[in-house]
Amino acid sequence: MQDLSGGYPGGHPRSPGTVGELGEFGLIRELTSRLTTTPAVRIGPGDDAAVIAAPDRRIVASTDILLEGRHFRRDWSTAYDVGRKAAAQNCADIAAMGAVPTALLLGLVVPAELPANWPTELMDGIRDEAQVASAAVVGGDVARGDTITVSITALGDMRNQDPVTRAGARPGDTVAVTGWLGWSAAGHAVLSRGFRSPRAFVEAHRRPEPPYHAGPAAAALGATAMTDVSDGLIADLGHIAESSKVRIDVRSGALDVPAQMSDIGQAVGVDPLHWVLTGGEDHAIVATFPPQQKLPARWRKIGEVLAPSALPQVTVDGAPWDKAGGWDHFGDQDED
Amino acid sequence: MQDLSGGYPGGHPRSPGTVGELGEFGLIRELTSRLTTTPAVRIGPGDDAAVIAAPDRRIVASTDILLEGRHFRRDWSTAYDVGRKAAAQNCADIAAMGAVPTALLLGLVVPAELPANWPTELMDGIRDEAQVASAAVVGGDVARGDTITVSITALGDMRNQDPVTRAGARPGDTVAVTGWLGWSAAGHAVLSRGFRSPRAFVEAHRRPEPPYHAGPAAAALGATAMTDVSDGLIADLGHIAESSKVRIDVRSGALDVPAQMSDIGQAVGVDPLHWVLTGGEDHAIVATFPPQQKLPARWRKIGEVLAPSALPQVTVDGAPWDKAGGWDHFGDQDED
């Protein structure tokens, strides 16, 4: 049984019994009863489709899918934390375009024998993270299946800014990052060795805190390319480098490696820089800016955009990073 | 191995090998390479999120989730047909609000050992049905898992009309339907007894043809409530009756029961009216109209909205329909 004491704020009565006992319509009722709304929600859950305000006349949309055993473990994360994390990674994609999240839709697969409080606490987590990102859950679908599957679509509004893609970085641009790097990976290393502390890193793995506001702020400042760090810094900078047809060099000395992360690295025999450079799931936001642009508060310059060369598209201190970067979710090794 | 000759139009080279051999990024490349676009798609797949035009300043959004073994069977339907059906049921939800579908996002779970042509042909089907509905696939996510899971989110534009919910039916209104009723259920009955014909019904089960254009047209004519028939006519009219706080009476004599459907009913010992009244998945559109409203072509008056009474919210010829209506997807019995 999962540890429910970790992050669940309580207050809601637990639904009794299993998902199968509740039935499809009973579960939908339980889930929708927990939702909150925003002025952007014109028609919420319960009809054929939801209707959401799109004042910009353009909508930003992204889908992510999470499976138990592959993207989360019930013995490592509470349902509430899985919900927060699932919503966070979707809202981070919206923010990384420079947009403000407005609405989430949830496709949920649950086994009939699952305790009914698991999906309801998942929904609490999704709702609360959506609120942090200024969005609301507006609809979805549930189905019975063997593996818990959480598919979220996030929608966002550009607020009259132009979207910042991965394709606009130019040689000479500054590479900068805001948010956390390597914390989730360090927490994962701790958990996978059977420990539950240091708590800050375990919490970072269970519940990322993407800097949502930084996306639209960077767009307003003229960021030329932007993405969120979901696959690892090197892999995600690789996406920018490939789309923009440039090389990106990261200065390792500019990266923040907290002392406590170094301690964990020493304890488990891993160079902590590896977590910072290749760890995904913190959903930091990395962007390129024109060289003369003063960086906003909390952004840190970590490198530079260069012309393409014979070197790999992303280098660290001018040389190839010799360890595998990023995650291929079809690889033989499960991530979590 | 599934029958691939049924509905796949061919023309695309088959991807060799399995999904696992392709890898996550290889599969995403294969899937996105097959997509087409529309002028509404400002940024398509490949970035953190897609950007789609929303000229109405409101976006309509709906999510549906389909699982192998539960909502489709690979020995009954080709991947292409599953794709058409998945896209159809989502676009029907958008049309049933009175909106025009603009974009689809796909969350796809596939086993590593699945032949790679299965997801690519699925994508062909989604793309082609999206085109029929005037939409394009703009993004998504893939993950590896044991059960094929297809989660689609459809977005649509209201085109300056007001959304038609389930809540606006008033006593005296006409109940009318357009599209097919009971065809998918009759085809399911045929397939579940091991037959492959009559072909028209089997095809209707494999690939519904929702009357997308009828949704916005009904909205323009002042439809007071509307939904698509996904759970069965009685169940879906029940949703309108409940939301609108009215009773709805269906006249069975007004329903179209084709002679060939009666023949199937006789052969398998089922009253074909049962399929027409309770069969889902054809995605007909049912709506209520003010009594004086002349019905558009291809709409058929099938009943009337009445004041609530002690009777069930939906009656047939003034009396309760005595067989179970609609499907509860958490029931013990698999639908497909």
Automatic annotation (TrEMBL), chains A, B:
It is an enzyme of class 2 (transferase). Pfam families: AIRS. It comes from Streptomyces daliensis. Transmembrane segments: none annotated. This is Thiamine-monophosphate kinase. Its EC number is 2.7.4.16. Substrate binds at residues 71, 281, 327. The gene is thiL. Mg(2+) 1 binds at residues 63-64, 141. The keyword Nucleotide-binding applies. Residues 46-156 form the PurM-like N-terminal domain.
